[in-house]
Specification:
There is one protein chain. The protein is mainly α. The chain contains 17 helices and no strands. The protein has helices at residues 2-14, 18-34, 38-54, 58-75, 78-94, 98-115, 118-134, 138-155, 158-174, 178-195, 198-214, 218-235, 238-254, 258-274, 278-294, 298-315, 321-334. The chain is globular.
Amino acid sequence: EAIALAHAGMLQSQTGELDEARAQVTAALAIARDIANRRWEGGFESNLGNLDLVQGQLPGARVHTEAALAIHREIGDRRAEGGALCNLAVLHHDQGELDLALAHYEAALVVLREVGDRLAESIALGNLGTLYNDRGQLGPARATYEEALAIHREIGDRLGEVITLGNLAKLAADDDRRDDAKVGYEAALSIARELGDRREMGVMLGGLGGLYAHLDRLDEAQRHYEQALAIHREIGNRRFEGETLANLAELLQRRGHHAQAREALDAGEALLREIDDPLDLAKLLCVRGHVDLGSGDRDSARGALDEAEQISREIGAEASSELLHQIAGLRAALG
């Protein structure tokens, strides 16, 4: 019964029914504890950690994932230990703790290669590529993503292929290879639609929105951002909802829709503070600073810059090359 409940829950998570998924997995965890099945208990703790991560509940995700890791080590389940190490790396990464994230990714890869888990290895490589990209190390990021993509295709992991194609598309956009970025995002979006994966559809639509914004195709950018935002809200992906609201606000400001831009910023800021996502909050504050400056409110813009800089110091100067670029741009605009 416990396995059936957990399986049903994870299927629901793939279709965006996250609250229902949580209820099913929580019930499965209770059964595992009742019958003292530590292996199942560790697996269900890991599932709950993943659900918390998707919904932006980072403290809960850490509690469940650390509990899972302790159980996996206690019972000597090396494969599951590698997965939990990778999940903890993602949590440290999302909170800007990049040195800790790197250490956990490297530890995870040692274990996953030892046990021959190619799927989990490819996931860890993809996440490691994103860490390199966040630090502005585009060469290592691209090589790591391509290694992950080769494994996805080798083992027939279509969802992993979607995610890594999207990551390579973002890297191409950051590297000003916009044609490559468009091809990558569209390929990833096509597979995500084929799989019915709403989460990745939202991510790829948001990526295309950002690309069109850089190309000054503002109507297309806004349409893609709004489609992404609708999906993130539908499935409860709060972190990406906050990120997309910040991107949409920046676009609305460029189009002269100042009141709508402020509405989007207010909603995004409240959400990112609620879920304790400092990195994306700092990026949003930089957007808010430009909006305030455009409205002639230099004091509010300076306050937004000060808070963004403080967050950057708290989470580490290397937490995001994108954030450092945004801070420098706002500082220059303020003079």
